[in-house]
Amino acid sequence: MTKLEVCCYSVDCALTAEQAGADRVELCASQADGGITPSYGTLKLAKEKVAIPVHPIVRPRGGDFCYSQSEFEVLKSDVACIRDLGFPGLVVGILDSEGHIDMPKMREIMALCSDMAVTFHRAFDMCVNPKVGLEQLTQLGVARILTSGQQQNAEVGLSMLRELNQLSGGPIIMAGAGVRLTNLQKFVDIGLSELHSSAGRQVPSSMRYRKAGVTMSSDTDFDEFSRYCVDGDIVAAMKTALEFSDQLSRTA
């Protein structure tokens, strides 16, 4: 069965994804940064409220994936916290300054993770050699790699995704970035068993009073009265399409 992981930026979105049929949630904060580590309160509530597997991202900041020693210490503390809260897995990725998988740091992370399933996130798409990276992550024992095939979106990266999937004898290759209802069959057709999507839309704020001329953002064009949320109808439609595709493949 092809699994659908949904990227969620709140517990409410995670619950929406669960109710719509998602198989797993990647839990993040800060969509503008591409996802950073959720707060302790968010982690605790998600563990209490969400029944499907939740894999929090562990990323101390936005930007690149080459971390200072203090950032790495923060990252390790967050991994330990997520482990101790009882999550079944997490999402992480570290590169060195030359664009290689940072094996010494990743070995420390893997040792901290105990029996949690580790997804190496789209830091993989920034590494200098994806085939060497795949070999290294296989050695580390990561469960899956979230990747767009080293392209801006996964549909453009289909060729690389196919090749990685054929080469991988260990980690699951999970397509992410621009995976949506209109193109998901393309990823199924190349043999991928897991897909990752935000499956969302912008929703307006519930605020009726809106103070003019004052913003909390350094980007003065940023709309503070809307936010990105998971769309349950989109998740449900994607799961229905995947289930139909699975049924066709079994009867073919």
Descriptors for this entry?
252 residues, globular, eight-stranded parallel β-sheet
Explain what this protein looks like in three dimensions.
By secondary structure, this protein is an alpha/beta fold. The protein has eight helices and ten strands. The chain has helices at 11-20, 40-49, 69-85, 103-112, 130-140, 158-167, 184-189, 232-251, and strands spanning 3-8, 24-27, 54-56, 89-92, 117-120, 144-147, 172-175, 194-197, 200-204, 226-230. The strands form two sheets. Strands 3-2-1-8-7-6-5-4 form an eight-stranded parallel β-sheet. It has a two-stranded antiparallel ribbon with strand order 9-10. The chain is globular and about 55 Å long. It starts with a strand and ends with a helix.
Please estimate the helix content.
25-40%
Distance between the termini: 15 Å
Number of strands: 10
- Rg, nearest Å: 18 Å
Largest sheet: 8 strands, parallel
The portion of residues forming beta strands comes to: 15-25%
The 3D shape can be described as: globular
- Overall structural class, as computed from helix and strand content, comes to alpha/beta
Q: Give the uncertain stretches in residue-range form.
A: none
Count of helical regions: 8
Main sheet strand line-up: 3-2-1-8-7-6-5-4
What's the overall average pLDDT, rounded?
Answer: 94
Strand and helix order: EHEHEHEHEHEHEHEEEH
